[in-house]
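Appendix B, record 7
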Amino acid sequence: MASTAQTPIELHPPASSHPSLLVAPAGHFDGSWFMGSWGVAWSTLPMWKGKKDVVIKYESPSADYSSFDSTVFSRKESAAADSSPSTVRGRETLTKGGPNAATYDWQGKSWLFFVHSHWEVLGYGKEEETGLEWAVTFFSKTMFTPAGLDIYIRNSPTAPKPAAADLTVRADLVRRIAAALGQVEGVSDLAKGGFEVPGIV
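C-alpha cells (predicted):
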C-alpha cells in the first residue's frame, strides 16, 4: 500500500547553489549519508537499457568526503539471478570551483583510467513513513555517453522498515520523482526519455 504521508520531492537544476547541496555552515549536504549502496531504479542513460540489478556503491571516502571510490554492479536482463555481475570501478572527486558540495568528477580505474565524466546530485530525501531513501543524479555529456539522469533508491540502512520492501511503494516513489524531474529547468526534456531499470534495488 502506498504511503499516505508523502514527503515533497525537492529537485534543483544543474549547477545549483541551493543550501541543500552545500555543506555546513552554508547548507546541509551530508557526504556521509550519501555513502553506501544505491539501486538505480530509473534512468535516461542508454547504458542501462537491457540491464538489471544496477547498483552503485560509494565507499572509502576522504576525511572531508571530497573524494571516494565507486563501484557499479550490473547484469544483463537475460542473466540468471545468481550470476556474477559486471563491475566498473572509479574514483569520485569533488569538482574544483564547482557550484556546490555535490558535484563530482569521475575517473575510471584499471583499464578505464583514461575515461572521465562529470556528475552532480540534483536532489535527495527520505520517506519517513516507509524508510526509503532516494537521490537524483545528472551526468554531463561525454565523448562516450549522452547527458543523462538516474534515480537512486535504497532502504534506509539505519532505520529499515518493512514497507520499503513493498514494490508498489517503491514504484510510486519513482513515479513521483520522475514527474518532478519533468518540471526542473535544464533537464525537463531529458526526463521525457526516462525508463525503469528492472531488478532488486
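Remarks on this record: DSSP finds three helices and nine strands in the chain. The radius of gyration is 16 Å.
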